[in-house]
Each structure stands twice: as structure tokens, then as C-alpha cells.
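Format notes (please read before filing issues)

Several people have asked whether sequences and C-alpha cells are stored in separate files. They are not. Every record keeps both together, in the order shown below: the sequence lines, then the C-alpha cell lines. Line labels are part of the format and must not be stripped during preprocessing.
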Amino acid sequence: MEGNLVGKINNQIEMETPNNITIKGILGLLMANTEATDMKKVISLGMGDPTLYSCFHSPDVAHDAVIESLTSHKFNGYSPTVGLPQTRKAIADYLSRELPEKLCADDVYITAGCTQAIELALSILARPGANILLPRPGFPIYALCAAFRNIEVRYFDLIPDKGWEVDLNAVEALADHNTIGIVVINPGNPCGNVYSYQHLQQIAETAKKLRTIVIADEVYGHLAFGANPFVPMGIFGDIAPVLTLGSLSKRWLVPGWRLGWLVTNDPNGTFKNPKFVERIKKYCDICGGPATFIQAAVPRIIQQTEDVFFRKTVNLLKWTADICCDKIKEIPCISCPYKPEGSMAVMVKLHLPLMIDISDDIDFCFKLAKEESVILLPGLAVGLKNWIRITFAADPASLEEALGRLKSFCQRHSYQQNDHH
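Then the structure lines:
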């Protein structure tokens, strides 16, 4: 009897676990393949966690606010599952600064990081037969959440030569009456793109035409340092309903605090339907949000962080993005079709015909980790085979060292170099 039960459980696990690649999973395997020596420390440009480098540190006011809320002993209990009222209000006010219609606290749901906001969005929208339109390349957690919720994933391509803009014709061709949303990541992960006001408006118009919503992932909101300023998708909420997902993680450099949000930007009231609100609240009851004392610190963090802190972060990212692109130009076998203008990462194309003994992007990244102790993310992890994602949120010295090793590796593995011997 017991044997049958174990067999049954194993079959269920076998059947129901999605086989999606995750960024953390593949980076763990790559890390296990590195060999650190006294001469060569491991440098990871694989994870979008700037706190790994001492030049990126969160503002003092954030730490002070957390200490204050913790030592007050007022925030050791449960918070409402949708979030503390003052936290919801502070985020509504913060996001409203750039929106035509003011948000209220009830439009905001506090989540454990942006990852939980993704899970919340897909779970409340899921229904039998549903499909969702995801960007390729994109952030793989969307497809993983969709797999657990039995939502069919349909990919539309981002166009590298057009600043990774959305292929709107592909979006129209993919959508049908079962499409529950179009996901837009801006500023872009993994591409470093920042969409123009006009392009975001076209996306909203397309969603309206297709009678669907936009899920706007703005986890890298405001981290823009190129020609286009950051424009929140919520500006176009009167054209098509927008679910905005965001967090403190990147702009405040505190990814480990797990403080995110899901916000309904929707002047026409589609999301105000009592059944929809009830559904969100019930899902929040299941999943629980971030620690209460971190939530309690949010109003002070948002209100008292000075602009000089944000400017410093953006200037540093601009500098490291420039270093990254300049160094890539010197490296044979790889090229960057679009210089990043925001976020913390860039997509780089591998030219495999120029390389010997490298079969694909996975092979490239594993051999690079083993030979040079440098971690980069294979493009396959974000949906684009034979590309690689490089995170440039690193201190300039480590970045230059890593890209120098990448250059040596590419030279060793290129036909051109080997023909000279």
C-alpha cells in the first residue's frame, strides 16, 4: 500500500513540475563549474543583484527607517494581507507623482518582491483555456508561473534593431478571446531598453483593440540613462487597464528586503469590479506579504530618500554600461546590437561560426566559467538561444577584469586567432 502511494506521489511530481529554466537554477550550475584561485576570483555578471558590489549601497535613510520600525515594537504582528494602510498609501502617492489620475491606497497591494507580484497577477487572471503574451527575450518567472497555473504562453519577439521594441504585428496575430494580458517589461530586463512614450501608447492601443490588459513590469522603474526618460505605463490606463508591478529592490538597492507591489491603474474601473477585488484579496490571504516592519519603514524610505542618491545610482549604471559596450567592441565573436539605456543588463549576440569548439550559448557560458571564473547568463534562460546576458551593475574594476577575461576566452576559441598559429 505504502509503495503504491509513494509511486503515485512520484508520478504526480513528475507530471506537474514545469521544466522551465530559471535564472537562479542555471547560475547555480555555472557557479559550481568555476574554479576560484588566488590569482583569479570568481566574478559574476549573471545576477541582477547590484548589492554584490560595494559601489552600490542602499541609502542610510532606508536602514534608519527599518531600525526605527523594528525597535518601536509596533510592527511585530501580522499586517493586513493586502499590506499596511500607510504603506499602500505611500506607494500610491509615490506612483501618482507621474500619473494623470491619482491612485488611492486601495489600488495598491503589497507583495513579497516583484516575483510575488508576478505570481499574484497571473493567479488572479488565470482561467480555463487562458493564454498570456510574453516578450522574447524576457524574464523567465512569467513562463514558470504560467506553467503552474496552466496558462498557455505565447511569445512575441522584441526587435533588437529597433531598440528591442515590441513586434506589435506579432502581438495582434497571437492574441485571441482567451488572451488574459500582454506583459511589457520597461526598462527592459534582459535588454536594457527604455521605451518611448509613443511606443508605450501604441502598446496600450493594441491592448485596447485586442480587449485585453497590459501587465507592466516596472521593477527597474526610473533606472534610465539614455535618450528616453522612463515613462510609467499607468499613464495609458485610460486606454487599456494596466496592472503595474514594481518593488523597492532595484531603485533603492535592497533586493533582499522583498518589498514589492501590484497596482491597478485603471481610471475606467475595470479592476474595481467587486468580484475582481475580492479575488485579489483572497489570493493575498493565501500568500502573505513581506515582513511587517519592512512595510512600516516604506513611507519614510519613499519620502526621505534624496534625489542625489538616485542620481548617483543612475550615473554609475551609465558609466558601467559604457564600459561594458566599449569592451564588447574589442571582443571577437560577440556583438551588441543595441546599447543599453536603462536597467542593469544587456543582451549580446554570439557569432558561433567564428568560434571553434563552442556549440551554443550554454556551452559558451559553462566553458567561460570553468576557464576564466566569469559567470554570464546564457540567452536560452531568457528565451534567446545563442545570445548572452551581461549584467553591468558591478564595480568598474571588476567589470573591466571580467570583460578582459571574456576577451581572452573569445580569442582562444576563435578561428581567426587559431589560424595565426
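For reference, the curators noted about this record: The chain has a mean pLDDT of 94. The two ends are 68 Å apart (CA to CA).
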